[in-house]
């Protein structure tokens, strides 16, 4: 069942009305050499403020934000309220998994060519054993803050921007698969790319770029080259996060990852810093995946890379 309520339209009691995007320049962005608008810096303090809220939600709801639990729905309501207030058209998509009701949150930025949809998404659910701040509050908060940056800039890209927060990823990519399977073939073909962000603030971080679509991979690698940070190809996750259902449907995909339970090598520590011989995230799927389980530099760099890619791929 789909409930479509837009922020402004909700205030007027009208469901899912498209909003007129007022004119005006793209504030807060400077043109690049090609004349296109450049992405603004994403304030890591803003991203961390969302993580603090998600931590509070978990603490108030049995210590987790898992599918089918109160903490998940409270997390979704928090993200949706921010997006409605910023002028997005939001849709809550409902599904059932393991006998419990799950929800995806989809947020469309009005305007742009809806035959060319650029999507950025992350799963919002945690495991039941902890608050899931790195996995995956980090991706969810970065996608949210980037969407809010689009609104702050009143960005008017050529392509249509859509942001998504998935339910029940930890049960096996259930929410994202429900979304892609619910689209008509025509609407699936309108998605020109899907960018996935699942664990992008690991406390002993690596900088991994998905190598699925070459153009998307290059976009991310160009960003990291520009800030002098070496990257590696992400090899742990084929099929292990929400980009997989999109890839299976023929949508070009990409994304970023800072590592989970695998161990950082000495060579990786030499180029990235951190602790060789230790896991990238020793609190993966554990109760210690709290706001203390985040590397701020990794979260900042990946949030800025996310915004860079959204601007570059949608102009
Ligand atoms: N499946 C994710 C964690 C994960 C493990 N490997 C990768 C690679 C790329 C993205 C995510 C992951 C989870 O536990 O949510
Ligand atoms: Ca930043
Ligand atoms: Zn997980
Ligand atoms: Zn995850």
Topology:
Blueprint: E1 2-6, H1 7-11, H2 44-60, H3 70-86, E2 89-97, E3 100-109, E4 113-123, H4 133-153, E5 159-166, H5 174-182, H6 185-189, E6 191-197, E7 208-209, H7 214-226, E8 232-233, H8 243-248, E9 253-257, H9 266-272, H10 296-314
Parallel strand pairs: 4-5, 4-6, 6-9, 7-8
Antiparallel strand pairs: 1-2, 2-3, 3-5, 7-9
Helix pairs in contact: 2-3, 2-4, 3-4, 4-10, 7-10
The chain binds D-tryptophan, calcium ion and zinc ion (2 copies).
CATH top-level class = Alpha Beta
C-alpha Rg, in Å?
18 Å
Q: Mean pLDDT, rounded to whole units?
A: 91
The description of the largest β-sheet is:
9 strands, mixed
Note the overall shape. globular
Helix content: 25-40%
CATH topology (fold) name? Aminopeptidase
- What is the CATH homology-level superfamily? Zn peptidases
Number of helices: 10
Quickly give the structural class.
alpha/beta
User: Between the first and last Cα atoms, what is the distance in angstroms?
Assistant: 33 Å
Q: Would you kindly provide a written description of the structure presented here, covering whatever features stand out?
A:
It is globular and about 45 Å long. The protein is built from ten helices and nine strands. The protein has a single domain (52-314), classed as Aminopeptidase (3-Layer(aba) Sandwich), CATH 3.40.630.10. 38% of the residues lie in helices and 19% in strands. The chain has helices spanning 7-11, 44-60, 70-86, 133-153, 174-182, 185-189, 214-226, 243-248, 266-272, 296-314; strands at residues 2-6, 89-97, 100-109, 113-123, 159-166, 191-197, 208-209, 232-233, 253-257. It has 315 residues and is of the alpha/beta class. A nine-stranded mixed sheet has the order 1-2-3-5-4-6-9-7-8, with helices on both faces. Bound molecules: D-tryptophan (DTR), calcium ion and zinc ion (ZN) (2 copies). Belongs to the peptidase M28 family. M28A subfamily. Its EC number is 3.4.-.-. Residues 104-309 form the Peptidase M28 domain.
């Amino acid at each position: 069942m789909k409930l479509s309520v837009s922020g402004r339209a909700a205030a007027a009691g009208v469901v899912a009305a498209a909003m007129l995007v007022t004119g005006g320049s793209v504030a807060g962005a400077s043109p690049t050499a090609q004349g296109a608008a450049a992405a603004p810096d994403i304030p890591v303090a803003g991203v961390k403020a969302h993580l603090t809220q998600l931590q509070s939600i978990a603490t108030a709801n049995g210590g987790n934000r898992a599918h089918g639990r109160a903490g998940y729905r409270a997390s979704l309501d928090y993200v949706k309220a921010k997006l409605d207030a910023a002028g997005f058209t939001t849709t809550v998509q409902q599904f059932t998994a393991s006998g419990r009701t799950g929800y995806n949150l989809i947020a469309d930025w009005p305007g742009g060519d809806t035959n060319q949809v650029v999507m950025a998404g992350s799963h919002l659910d945690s495991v039941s054993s902890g608050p899931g701040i790195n996995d995956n509050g980090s991706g969810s908060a970065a996608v949210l803050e980037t969407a809010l940056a689009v609104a702050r800039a009143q960005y008017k890209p050529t392509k249509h921007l859509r942001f998504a927060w998935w339910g029940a990823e930890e049960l096996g990519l259930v929410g994202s698969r429900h979304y892609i399977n619910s689209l008509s073939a025509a609407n699936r073909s309108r998605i020109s790319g899907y960018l996935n962000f699942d664990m992008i603030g690991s406390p002993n971080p690596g900088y991994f770029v998905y190598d699925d679509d070459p153009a998307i991979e290059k976009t991310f690698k160009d960003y990291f080259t520009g800030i002098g940070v070496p990257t590696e190809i992400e090899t742990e996750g084929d099929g292990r996060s929400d980009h997989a259902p999109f890839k299976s449907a023929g949508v070009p995909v990409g994304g970023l990852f800072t590592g989970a339970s695998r161990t950082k090598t000495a060579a990786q520590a030499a180029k990235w810093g951190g602790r060789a011989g230790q896991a990238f995230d020793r609190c993966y799927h554990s109760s210690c995946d709290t706001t203390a389980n985040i590397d701020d530099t990794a979260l900042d760099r990946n949030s800025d890379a996310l915004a860079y890619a959204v601007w570059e791929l949608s102009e």
